[in-house]
Amino acid sequence: xxxxxxxxxxxxxxxxxxxxxxxxxxxxxxxxxxxxxxxxxxxxxxxxxxxxxxxxxxxxxxxxxxxxxxxxxxxxxxxxxxxxxxxxxxxxxxxxxxxxxxxxxxxxxxxxxxxxxxxxxxxxxxxxxxxxxxxxxxxxxxxxxxxxxxxxxxxxxxxxxxxxxxxxxxxxxxxxxxxxxxxxxxxxxxxxxxxxxxxxxxxxxxxxxxxxxxxxxxxxxxxxxxxxxxxxxxxxxxxxxxxxxxxxxxxxxxxxxxxxxxxxxxxxxxxxxxxxxxxx
Length: 280
Hints:
Layout: E1 3-7, H1 16-28, E2 32-36, H2 44-47, E3 50-53, E4 56-58, H3 78-85, E5 93-94, E6 97-98, E7 107-109, E8 112-116, H4 118-122, H5 127-138, E9 142-146, E10 161-165, E11 168-172, H6 181-193, E12 197-201, E13 223-225, E14 228-233, H7 237-251, E15 256-260, H8 262-265, E16 275-278
Parallel strand pairs: 1-2, 8-9, 11-12, 14-15
Antiparallel strand pairs: 1-16, 3-4, 5-6, 7-8, 10-11, 13-14
């Protein structure tokens, strides 16, 4: 049985509403969850290792500009956390240099990983060699590269696309968000060109000129455990209802569990970002 982990920082009063609803729903659906000690930031998806097999993990480095300040107190060293969990991850390198790749930029299933081209910017490694390293360390048959979402400083794929089955992915409906046509053609084309069918889901971003772009309106950043989809909502009745209906069509209305996420989306992430799993 999978166990879902969250940073112990979610126990802080600032996240009371989110945590109380999450805990209630996880217990209601008999889903095990635990908290990670020694964390300095809530976005554990990004700094924790990627599971590639039973008791097998790969640890990448956070991208160079994940934090504006290199001495940011939110920087978390996952080594001590892994030691406490009894995990010894593989650390991939190229010419004695570690690979930079945030966990939120790896959408992996069905022997395939989907990663944005941001990975090429963060690693000064020949593209063919980097793809070879990623394919081998993630233990997949192929890596699909998609473009970065414009204006998203993270360059993460988990706010853009998620797997439905081995031939189908859910993707943001960027046409309703007024996104750049060239970006949309390149993004959708990369997925369809890889032989994947596309299911569009609502995407209702809010404008911001700050470094920390809100994730408000990013419904695709859900947490899925088994058949249950923990869907973020944002105190936006009209758009929330559209999202609930659409995800219900895809996964079954009985499998949709809504979780108010405006308090964390304002900080730049949603439910996939604040969660991390160990799968049996």
